[in-house]
Amino acid sequence: RTRDAYGRNDFGQSCLLARRLVESGVRFAAVNYGGWDHHGKIFEALDKKLPEFDMGLAALVTDLDNRGLLDDTLLLVMGEFGRTPKVNKEAGRDHWGRAGSLLFAGAGVRGGQVIGATDKEGAFVTERPVRPADVCWTVYESLGIDPRTILRTPEGRPVEILDQGGMIEELYV
C-alpha cells in the first residue's frame, strides 16, 4: 500500500527510499528525476511525467508530515535553470537562466507563499531575485552548517564555503 501511494515507478520509489533514509537518521538525501529537457513536444512529455512527479512528491510530503519528520527535514525541489516562457517551433521550451521556480517545504518553512515575481510572460525577475548562492546558503543553514566556515585546500589555502549569498529569510516568516 505504501509503495502504491508513492507510485511504482523510479521517482516514486526513490522518494520512498528518501523517506526511509530520513527516518533512519540520514541528514542529506537527494532524489534525481531527470528527463525534463523538453525542447520538443513538451506537452506530450509532461502529460506522462507530471503525474508520477505529483504522486511521488505528494506522498513524500504527506508521509514525512504524518511521521513527524517534516519539521526537521528540508525539502527542496529544483532544476538547474528555468525554461523559456514561449513555446518554440518544435512545441517545446528551451533553456532559460533568467527566471525559474523552486519549491521549499519542511524544516520550519512557512508554506503557502510565493516569494518573488516575474514579468507577465514569466521571462524576467521583477521582484525579490533569489541567486544560486542564496539557495545554497539556506540549505547549509538548514543542515546546521555555517556557510561562512573556512575550509582548507590540500595546499592549506583558506576558502570560505560560500563567499556570497544569504538566507532566504521570507521562507521562515
Quick recap:
This protein is 32% helix and 13% strand.
Protein architecture, described:
This protein has 173 residues and is an alpha+beta fold. Helices cover 32% and strands 13% of the residues. The chain is built from four helices and eight strands; from the N terminus they run H-H-H-E-E-E-E-E-E-H-E-E. It has helices at 2-6, 10-23, 42-66, 132-142; strands at residues 74-77, 82-83, 95-96, 103-106, 117-118, 125-127, 150-152, 158-160. The strands form four sheets. It has a two-stranded antiparallel ribbon. It has a two-stranded antiparallel ribbon with strand order 2-3. Strands 5-6 form a two-stranded antiparallel ribbon.
Write the layout of secondary structure elements.
Blueprint: H1 2-6, H2 10-23, H3 42-66, E1 74-77, E2 82-83, E3 95-96, E4 103-106, E5 117-118, E6 125-127, H4 132-142, E7 150-152, E8 158-160
Antiparallel strand pairs: 1-4, 2-3, 5-6, 7-8
Structural descriptors:
173 residues, alpha+beta, 8 strands
**How many strands in all?**
8
β-strand percent reads 5-15%
For the residues shown, what is the average pLDDT? Answer: 96
Number of contiguous helices: 4
What's the overall geometry?
Answer: globular
